[in-house]
Amino acid sequence: MYQIFHKFPHFNVALVTYKQVLTTIISTSSAFLMLTLPAIIHAPNSKLLAAEVVSQDLDAAIFFQQGVTFYNRQDFQNSEIAFRKALERDPNIGTARNYLGNIFLQQNRLNLAIQEFGEAIRLSPNLGEAYYNLGVALQRQGQKEAAITAYRQALVVTPTLADAYYNTGVLLYEQEQRQDAIAAYQQAINLNRNHKKAYFNLAIVQQQEGQIEAAISAYQEVLKIDPENFLAYNNLGSLLVNQGRTAEAINIYQQAVVQNAKNTSAYYNLGVTLYNQGAWNESARALKHAREQYIKEGNIEQVTKTEQIMQQITQILAPKQLPVNQPNNGTPIITPPVEQLPANLPPVEDLPINTSVKDTTTLPNLTPNKQMTNPK
What we know:
- The chain is mainly α.
- Helices cover 58% and strands 3% of the residues.
- The protein has helices at 46-49, 58-72, 76-89, 94-106, 110-123, 128-140, 144-157, 162-174, 178-191, 196-208, 212-225, 230-242, 246-259, 264-276, 280-297, 300-317; strands spanning 20-23, 30-32, 39-41, 356-358.
- Strand 1 (20-23) and strand 2 (30-32) form a beta hairpin.
- The two termini are 29 Å apart.
């Protein structure tokens, strides 16, 4: 299963909802655009904050530090109490307001979160993470344009926030501004060469825009960073087959099943590709694995399709009385695409600076016609 791990595990609060947005090119699996709402960037951890002067009022500084400690323990009730006490002593601690906004955001109290982030910005206009977090809250409310504005302001203050570009790309894609989304994802990658989600989303959008070679390169980068991303394997293999690079596609599918023996789509795609190459025995072995997994998944329709191919292979391999010099060739087939949703939802990704939390969104159904040969 494709998993993305949080840099700070105690902020693992997001679930990711997948929607199919693109059907892959050959008789394979569907591609899924993994567009997820961004993580929350908040202030540095308590160890770093201990060296910072957040207030000239000693008691306010102590309460603030207690708030950070409770926050890092996910004790949000006591964290809020401590930050409130700090603000009673010194109402000008912008970072405390940012923490309160994060607490409310995790509790889905979005209006209060937006209010606190606004106060944090008013008190600390150069606090880039406050603009970023405001963008998260606005995005969760569906205020897409306002969220984009907040992310862009975050980048004015802190130009190194790769996820601000990434999240902007998500929103631009949702507004059908694909070229702008591509540019945003590329900016995120320029700042963070290990941003696997940015690479993955970039590949999908490039594939939709017909930029096939660029999409292939982006998928390859995904797999360098995240070799367990089964969706990237399947999508890459499909594109390679469509480009006539069959041997490379077979290699990709084989890598996929080595990484994840339960990658049903990869087994199926491998079997179909080998079948079309006349490698009957190898095809039968791959399809047998796919059939077993489809049975476990209860995917009766795909079990039937797989069995039909296996029956054709059996007929091809069966001893026959043939006329002299009469070849025994099978007819290559192209079967309908396989639609397979991930079994589990991945947690959130790392961010370049500061601890962060990820949120989610449900995407619109953007599925084009199936068996698309030239994505637009």
